[in-house]
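Researcher: Please translate sequence to structure tokens.
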Amino acid sequence: MRGILNKVRSFFRLNARRRSLFFQVVFLSLYRGVLVFFNSPLASSERMYQQDAVGLNGPISEDQMALIADIAAAVRLGVKYIPWLNVCRHQAWQAIKLLRRYKIPYSYHVGLKKIPTNGKREAHAWVIAGGYFISGRCRLDEYLEIKF
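Model: Translation complete:
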């Protein structure tokens, strides 16, 4: 009981924007689950990125950098507290949706682990904005990026 109370207290210590972004991440996670269930092409991070491929570069303001930090924190909180499957590709989709909503330039990446684990190739997806990982934090030198 004490653990739950501590989590509730720490949640309310977050600023209002981070709380709001966390709820948006939870909603987006549910929404993507519905899209995947109905086999919708809208559930594809790759499709969204290809649509945004034009105009992804540009200067990032200080306000946008603060928002980038808040979005990254909300995605990390979602990873920690969403009780259903929320793997790197799902997190990337959530991050892209939020970054698009706030018109923040980003880059989406997919890679294969260079050294297979247990004989199996491992894929990973991540999003970077303003030079920071928004989702899928990893060591880039361990992955061979797939271009699409």
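Researcher: Any highlights?
Model: The chain has a mean pLDDT of 87.
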